[in-house]
Amino acid sequence: MAPLRLLISNDDGVFAAGIQALAAEAVARGHQVTVVCPDQERSATGHGLTLHSPLRAERADELFVAGVRAWACSGTPSDCVKLALFRLLDEPPDLVLSGINHGPNLGTDVLYSGTVAAAMEGTIEGFPALAVSSADFQWRHFQPAARLALEVAESMHAAGWPEGLLLNLNVPPLPAEAIGPLRWCRTAVRRYVDQFDKRVDPRGRTYYWLAGEVANDLEAQVAGPADWPIDVAWIDSGGASLTPLQPELLWRGLTENLPAAESLSR
Fold first, then answer.
1. In a 10 Å sphere around its CB, with 0-12 CB exposed, 13-18 middle and 19+ buried, how is residue 189 labelled?
2. In a 3-state reduction of DSSP, which class is residue 99?
3. Per-residue pLDDT at 265
4. Lowest-pLDDT choice from 52-66, 122-136, 246-260
5. Selection from 86, 104, 102, 91 nearest residue 49 by Cα
6. What is the pLDDT of residue 164?
7. How crowded is the C-beta side of 158, counted as CA atoms within 13 Å?
8. 19 upstream amide cis, omega within 30 of 0
């Protein structure tokens, strides 16, 4: 296929091995690659934007393979994509990629994910976008995920990317030959228990550390075709999950069950 202009970002920062592997795979396939990503880890920042301090962006080409133009930005993942689209890029990208995240972005965790938010910023601005995550925090072999992400992105682009579609790809922590089939998946409901660890600092003052254990509700009703597996379960089985997302958050329940708005105000 003809070379594509790719904008790549992440939330793990410019030094992360995942984004370096994704950029290297894209260059190896002949694409024109620009990286604009945080200058340090900014995971779980969601769709936050920097409004009360200036943004700074420094060139970081030397951290990537030859042919990549790269900037390390002081802002959030969403800041990075916005800054790239409206100031740093000479031409609009054909695709926005985000990742490879060091850890999964499954189920309702996509609402907190800086990786998904960076890709979503591309979707909001009208560009095809894909977020990709390696579904284990300790796994550091990113080549299979990079290859699969580019295959999906290239194939979807060639087929005609539907307007407003964000793709969220999770790849199990396995060698390439052991990864199961890629499937369209629904998003699981994920909750956390014992979320805050209460501690005392050396001066006797109480503080709290966000921690908690994930609890997947695989029986909860979720959107999507009933024959699509749940993303968490499919990853656990060794397959790669691909979930279609969109910025639209309007409630999917029955509107006739809502009271008249006029009755809610006095």
1. middle
2. strand
3. 86
4. 246-260
5. 86
6. 95
7. 9
8. no
Q: How far apart are CA 192 and CA 214, in angstroms?
A: 4
Q: Tokens 């656990």 sit at which residue?
A: 236
The token pair that represents 7 in the structure block:
């904008």
Amino acid at position 208, single letter: Y
**Residues linked to residue 34 through DSSP beta bridges, in sequence order:** 7, 69
Contact in structure between 59 and 70 (CB atoms under 8 Å): yes
Find the helix packing angle between 17-28 and 143-159, rounded to 10°: 50
Query: At residue 140, what are phi and psi to the nearest 5 degrees?
Result: -125, 20
Distances (CA, A) of 113 to 33, 120, 177: 23, 10, 28
Quote the tokens at residue 262.
């006029």
The most distant pair of C-alpha atoms in the chain lies apart, rounded to whole Å, by: 65
Cα dist from 139 to 17, 103, 142, 173, 174, whole Å: 11, 8, 8, 6, 9
